[in-house]
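User: For a reading group we're discussing how well predicted structures match intuition. Take Cupin domain-containing protein. Before you show the prediction, I'll give you the sequence so everyone sees exactly what went in.
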Amino acid sequence: MATIPDETPVRLRAADAPDQPAVTPALEDLYRGFERELLVPLWTEIGDLMPRRPRSRAVPHLWRWRNLLELAARAGELVPVGRGGERRAIALANPGLGGRPFATPTLWAAIQYLMPGEDAPEHRHTQHAFRFVVEGSGVWTVVNGDPVPMNRGDFLPQAGWNWHAHHNAAAEPMAWIDGLDIPFQYATDAQFFEFGRDQISADEHATPERSRSERLWGHAGLRPIGAPAGTGTPLLRYPWEVTDRALADQLDSGGTVEPGHAAVRCTDPATGGDVLPTVRAEFHRVVRGAETAPVRETGSSVYTVFDGSGTVTVGDTTWTVTRGDLFVVPSWEPFSAKSEAGPSDSDSGSLDLFRFSDAPIFEALRLNRREPR
Ligand code: GTQ
Ligand code: FE2
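Assistant: Thanks. Here is the predicted 3D structure of Cupin domain-containing protein, as structure tokens, for the group to look at:
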């Protein structure tokens, strides 16, 4: 039996498959029989279905924040937000995924935009979601009636099936990034969606500095004994001040991933596990001049440059990146980042990256693999 070379094209045609008999009328008739009965022989498909290593249809791709923001602002002027469309969210469509609004085969990433005074109506869905704020403030997301502020650097997880609406209480428009597992759930045929109230109450339009969820669950190492179990992670905001301090303290105290590279993962305070069942969220800080060692992993990630600048390499592609830029790392593509001074010196002096990935899915299914490249 001939071995299939490593770089065999993804789809083998019947007659091209290794060790195939010559094409005779009898063989052609056999293949017509397969077609008629809706049967497909493994030997014509094996290179595509059972590759030697991951071959993502998703490709490395970068979206520039200034372009996203400019288009989102125009959508803010031209396109209303309301029942039906539900959100003024504009998704990143990976050029390898056939025009679907999928950043990776499992992850949705979008820029969402609300004009001053606007409300995005209440709904809930099985898809797990989060918000991440690159710049601005003034929007509160109201989760099960609890208004949660959104400020620069904040990470706001929101597990599936919780009611949520958003309202902009400020005089300025605000943009942020949404991450969801929409493409993954699309493949499961297990999604549900419900419309909530068209208008949330006056109480829920309140603009507290801290949500009820943070007052209960936002104290590291302290679990509220009487707090009722909700659906999914109970802490609804991971404020930037805390994340920033955690990264700075890690660099000072020698517990880094590698020299000059600190990283933290957002966890569910009730379980200690990933913050969402299908989505992992991490912050990485690479100090000026440092570079991360190239690594490849199964599963896909979307990165956002939160602060600073530098270069990032995904597979064979290297980009110079700056605040707000978003890029995709497909499964098994090596990734590394280098922190370098950029055109604007107003940053913190480090390259700060926010990363989200589908790692919890891969770990649950024991499909996770990782190797230095
Ligand atoms: O804010 O509730 O980008 O339901 C996609 C689906 C945002 C949201 C998205 C959603 C939302
Ligand atoms: Fe939603």
